[in-house]
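in:
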């Protein structure tokens, strides 16, 4: 985890400290051929793969602040109990 992340048994908040530099390094090493596509995380045992309110807020942030400026939709994968998973794609607004 990046420094500043917070970890508890039922919640995890990843810090973004230094993540931008690491993504920039990947871009440089791959000459722009490897792109950031989204976020993934898991939910605790017994929970579904449906997004929580916090997940929806994170997906909105991912869309508005990270992906939309690049002209891309936001993608989130949530892993859950019993091998369930859900992919959530934030629909892009049409250009006006």
């Amino acid at each position: 985890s990046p420094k500043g992340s917070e970890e508890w048994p039922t919640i995890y908040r990843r810090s973004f400290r230094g993540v931008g530099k690491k993504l920039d390094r990947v871009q440089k090493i791959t000459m722009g051929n490897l792109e950031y596509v989204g976020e993934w995380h898991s939910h605790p045992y017994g929970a579904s793969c449906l997004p929580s309110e916090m997940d929806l807020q994170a997906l909105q942030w991912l869309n508005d602040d990270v992906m939309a400026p690049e002209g891309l939709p936001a993608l989130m994968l949530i892993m859950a109990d019993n091998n369930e998973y859900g992919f959530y794609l934030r629909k892009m607004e049409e250009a006006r």
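note: Strands lie at 6-7, 12-13, 39-42, 74-79, 85-90.
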